[in-house]
Amino acid sequence: MTFSEVIHFSIKPLLNGFLIIFIVLVGLFVLVIDRKNLKKSGKNKDAKLAMAIGIAYMIAGSLLYIIGRII
What we know:
By secondary structure, the protein is an all-alpha fold. It has one domain. It contains 3 helices and no strands. Helix 2 packs antiparallel against helix 3.
């Protein structure tokens, strides 16, 4: 078995629909709920960081979905 086949057979099962949806929902939660609570408590720097993390999770989930379809 070549290295690319090992990667293919070990990563492909991890990229199922449940995992992708879960990653995107975590990003949405951080972006909407957590960010709002941090802003309310006056932690603006943390709110900006939560926004960046939420967006990164949503982008990562989308990219993993695309990669899973290509593989």
